[in-house]
Design a protein that fits this description.
Number of helices: 3
Number of domains: 1
Protein name: Alpha/beta hydrolase family protein
Shape: elongated
Mean pLDDT: 93
GO molecular function: triacylglycerol lipase activity
Oligomer: single chain
CATH architecture: 3-Layer(aba) Sandwich
Strand order of the largest sheet: 1-2-4-3-5
CATH superfamily: Alpha/Beta hydrolase fold, catalytic domain
Order of helices and strands: EEEHEHHE
Radius of gyration: 15 Å
Structural class: alpha/beta
Length: 117
C-alpha cells in the first residue's frame, strides 16, 4: 500500500481508476479502516468515470498511530473537559488536504461514511 506524509503523519491510501478522471475522495469515520469502503463499491465508482481515493485516517489501519500521546479521558469528555484530546477534526481535515495535495488533486467530489465525525 502507498503512503503520503501529511501534517506530520503518514497516511495509507489506495486508488481505483484512472488518475485523469475526476477525483472521488472517500472519507471513513469513527475509527474504521479505508477497507470499510468495499472494493466492489470503489470499482463501481471507477467504472463510472471517477478516480477513487480511499485512505486510513490517523490512528486507524496502516496510517500513523499516535499512541505516545496517551489515552483520551472519555468520561471527562462527557463533562466538557477536552484537556486529554490529542487532536481535533481540524487536524484530520489538514491531513486530508495534505493527502489530496500530495496526489496532485485540485478538485474532488467526496463522500463521508455515516460514522464520520
Amino acid at each position: 500500500m502507498p503512503f503520503v506524509r501529511s501534517n506530520a503523519v503518514d497516511l495509507c491510501y489506495e486508488t481505483f481508476g484512472d488518475p485523469a478522471d475526476p477525483a472521488m475522495l472517500l472519507i471513513m469515520g469513527l475509527g474504521e479502516q479505508m477497507i470499510a469502503w468495499p472494493d466492489g463499491f470503489c470499482a463501481a465508482l471507477a467504472a463510472r468515470g471517477f478516480h477513487v481515493i480511499r485512505f486510513d485516517n490517523r490512528d486507524v489501519g496502516l496510517s500513523t498511530w499516535l499512541d505516545d500521546l496517551g489515552d483520551v479521558d472519555v468520561p471527562a469528555l462527557f463533562t466538557g473537559d477536552r484537556s486529554s484530546v490529542r487532536y481535533g477534526l481540524s487536524d484530520m481535515a489538514a491531513d486530508t488536504a495534505g493527502l489530496i495535495e500530495a496526489l496532485g488533486v485540485h478538485r474532488a467530489h467526496w463522500s463521508a461514511s455515516r460514522w464520520a465525525a
